[in-house]
Amino acid sequence: MLNFATDMNQRDRQILQIALPSIVSNITVPLLGMIDVAIVGHMGSPVYIGAVAVGSMIFNLVYWLFGFLRMGSSGLTAQALGRRDFTEVTRLLVRSMSIALGIALLLIILQTPLKWLMFWLIGPTPDVAPSASTYFNIVIWGAPASLALFSLMGWYIGMQNTRFPMLISIMQNVVNILASLTLVYGFGMKIEGVAFGTVIAQYAGLLMAVGLLARNYSRIFRYFQKDRIFQKMGAFFAVNRDIFLRTLCLVAVNLFFTAAGARQGAIILSVNTVLIQLYLFFSYFMDGFAYAGEALGGKAYGAHNIAAFHETLRKLWMWMLIVTSAYTLLYMLGGSWIVALLTDEAQVLETSREYLWWAWLIPAAGCVAFIWDGIFIGITATRGMLVSSFFSALVFFVVYLLSEKTLGNHGLWLAQIVYLAMRGILQTIWYRLKLHSVSDIGECQ
């Protein structure tokens, strides 16, 4: 009995060792954009704030679409590590980095049509557009560093190491603060200083990631064989294709949610923007446990250790219940206080009270999908992620169209909550029907 308890505690420790650094990393990510906004907010013109907001939105959207570089790398790497296939472990990093740099080069070559397309979609006002264009023209050159970091971060997670991504994220924020402040206040630069500060931070992060790789993983690269490096590229692209298409579904829902709120006026748009931050706060924690599912679930799958896989899954459900219960209680008791921290606009605060109870449902509606996302990425069952996201997105649009005229913005929130819940429900069904036995997963992706 004592040995059983010790084994359970060990599994919990493994999950927390991966989840907690990931949570810290997630919390630091939005700081890069917030720091830029804080700096330009003291330049004497709202144009600069708008320019950084537009520019950050563009790159957040573009880089989100290529998030498969991280997610595809982590699951495949964890599986190869579980098999003790160090040759494939090293090849996976080189493959992913090669694709990342190729995509980055393409973005730089096509930066003019890309900027035109994104400006057309976002529609910045004439006074903001020139500064936003300047910001874009500089930050686009950070694409190689950003996308290469996606590959490295995913590889580190697959190697059961989330401490390095955490350290890299913290360092990036420190460099971004120092570089932007120096360029803006030391050299008198405006939007250019903020943009160059962001690019400097991106390359500093890449330099640190490569340095940590060389220092701590140099021995594993003795197994590297370049002759068959692209031999399994088909499987690599199949996994990443599903993740990319799944991300398009998420982007479509998020963009429509924002646009539908905007059509109802500035107050409703502001209320929805503030309340959706509560989902993001919840996601920072749940993503940490999803990363644990990627790393530990993928490693157990690669090692064909069915007992370890199911034990990891059971423990993840336990942590999901703890985190979800805590956030639900927090939002029910302190939701109004959190909203007041995010905005002091009286009309927004007043209107938000009518919709705040929807935020109470966010943790329970969204929690299951986070755990399944981590597990599905770890075992590279990405087709299930794509199918569940596609049909959940369809449900979102159907629910909104049916309830828009009678419920207004409440109909939009109803569609959002149903969408979040449906992702988890459909993934559960997919797992039960096709992936319940770990030994069958490889045949049913």
> What would you call the shape?
globular
Element-level helix/strand string? HHHHHHHHHHHHHHHH
Work out the strand percent.
Answer: under 5%
Poorly predicted regions: 1-7, 441-445
Mean pLDDT across all amino acids: 84
Helix content: over 70%
Number of E-state strands: 0
Number of helices: 16
Q: What is the SS-derived class?
A: mainly alpha
Gyration radius (Cα, Å) is: 22 Å
Question: Mind summarizing the main beta sheet?
Answer: none
Q: What's the SSE blueprint?
A:
Elements lengths: L1 H39 L5 H20 L2 H15 L3 H24 L1 H12 L6 H11 L3 H16 L4 H24 L4 H26 L16 H30 L3 H37 L3 H37 L3 H33 L3 H26 L1 H27 L2 H4 L4
Helix pairs in contact: 1-2, 1-8, 1-9, 1-11, 1-12, 2-6, 3-4, 3-7, 3-10, 3-11, 4-7, 6-9, 7-9, 8-9, 10-11, 10-14, 11-12, 11-13, 12-13, 13-15, 14-15
In words, what does this structure look like?
The chain contains 16 helices and no strands. The protein has 445 residues and is an all-alpha fold. It starts with a helix and ends with a helix. The N terminus and C terminus are likely disordered.
Task: Offer a quick outline of the entry.
The protein is mainly α.
Key descriptive features of the protein:
445 residues; mainly alpha; 86% helix; 0% strand
